Amino acid sequence: MKWQSDKNTPNRTALITGASSGIGLEYSRQLAAKGFDLVMVSNEPEEIMRTSGKIAEEYKIKTIPYYIDLGRPDAAKELFEWTISRQIQVDILINNAGIFIFREVTDTPAERIQTLIDLHISTVTKLCRLFAEDMKKRKKGYILNMSSMSCWMPMPGIALYTASKAYIRVFSRSLHYELKEEGITVTTVCPGGIATGLYNLPENLLKLGVRLGILMTPQKMVKKALKALFNGKQQIIPGWINRMYIPLVAIMPARMRLIVKHKLLKNA
26 with 57: CB under 8 angstroms? Predict the structure, then answer.
């Protein structure tokens, strides 16, 4: 079920959430390079207008910026209905938007917890349901959901983040089987650390992390993720180091987890 470009057919359209920066912006660039038109969704109105215009000019494709806060309960329905009203046929849905919380659950404001749950769980689920139903009518489509390698790592300080990413992984893997016979590919991406602004690290540490192999560049990660998507793969963990790291973390003693917690939360 590999996607192949065809100069005799109209451009297909990809919708990317969290598209104004980081991984979402890189998905936009690489899909534009493949000839896809883009719906670029973000909660940063100025950035999404600027980046969408730049990509349209550079790659000579059509981009439509759309500003919305996907952390609202009704955001998925609003976004889907807007695409219908504009007669936009979404061939690829990439659920990339997310937030990272490094704080103990009892120290996290209730409204912040609700935002994470709505953004990572509720909105992702509803967008998959709405756009997959539309794709089923055409018997073709692609859905890529961003989980995280941390979904296998019950570490203190990131309980909310890891639990929500675990939901995305399990939900997406099940959805893959539900939609496979309908001609729709659902791929889950579980990356390790990526050199973006998500973790609020200084630029020099990001570059050091890439050199040491601890972090992966967005360009490399997105290239691997899209290859897996178009090859119909159910799940990908980019990077052999990350695949080796998961079983090591699983056997980490509880005492070691607490040491990590105190060290990291102290500097958070």
Answer: no
